[in-house]
Design goal:
Blueprint lengths: L1 H5 L17 H21 L2 H15 L8 E12 L9 E14 L2 E15 L11 E16 L7 E14 L10 E13 L8 E11 L10 E11 L5
Antiparallel strand pairs: 1-2, 1-8, 2-3, 3-4, 4-5, 5-6, 6-7, 7-8
Length: 237
């Protein structure tokens, strides 16, 4: 198995242990990490497209007459990478600035602006536990569909949601891949009204996938498990 890893097709990287190629335990560890991330990339290559299709189908199926109610939301989120490499190799702190418009009593569409900060290993296929880190600022935008359960007057209102859209980063994310990516998410949460109709509280969970959708040769991506917390700046009507 070690021989097979050392003979892996050229990925354009050299092991830091030597200037002439790959050698030593550090390189073997890097190759193993690369294999894990490439497997994750294969499994998640079409994540953005899948969520976009689901968004389209949800909008088409939910064809009730649109309502006039709309609101702004401000939520914050913090997520860590899962599934690819070691847990926590990448961490993402973000704001979600959302304008949503109701389509009927139980669904809404939203446009979301997402400024964020990503902490990740500086080396491609590295780990923050063994490699220096870099801090990367990014800005994304997304179309979000949310389905709400229970009536709008309920004090606790569960919801499920999905979103997808482009994201641009000042550095390549992950390292040595692409500045341009797609951020796709699926999640669930609750809207709570502890103060009546004023300033509803939003608490939720999102699973997110960042990848360049194959527009670059390398597309390992990040999978992120994220907790969100925020407010509706205008109450729903």
């Amino acid at each position: 198995m070690i021989v097979a890893l050392l003979m892996w097709p050229d990925i354009g990287l050299e092991c830091p242990a030597t200037s002439g190629g790959c050698a030593g335990a550090h390189c073997i560890q890097s190759r193993l990490h690369f294999v894990r991330m490439e497997k994750s990339a294969f499994m998640n290559r079409n994540a953005s497209l899948t969520i976009l299709v689901l968004l389209f189908l949800a909008v088409r199926i939910d064809a009730s007459p649109a309502q006039s109610a709309s609101h702004f939301s401000l939520t914050t989120g913090y997520g860590e990478s899962v599934l690819d490499g070691r847990r926590g190799d990448a961490r993402m702190s973000m704001l979600h600035l959302e304008w949503a418009r109701a389509r009927n009593d139980h669904s809404e569409l939203a446009i979301v602006l997402i400024p964020s900060v990503i902490e990740q290993p500086q080396q491609a296929f590295g780990s923050r536990f063994t490699e220096p880190e870099q801090t990367v600022r990014s800005l994304g935008a997304a179309l979000l569909y949310r389905h709400l359960f229970r009536d709008a007057s309920a004090k606790i209102r569960p919801f499920i949601e999905a979103s997808s859209g482009p994201m641009w980063s000042e550095e390549r994310v992950p390292a040595a891949t692409s500045h341009f990516n797609f951020l796709s998410t699926a999640g669930a949460g609750v809207i709570i009204r502890p103060w009546g109709e004023n300033l509803p509280l939003v608490i939720g969970y999102r699973f997110g996938h960042i990848s360049n959708a194959g527009i670059e040769d390398r597309n390992p991506g990040w999978n992120l498990s994220t907790i969100i917390l925020g407010f509706h700046l205008q109450p729903q009507r």
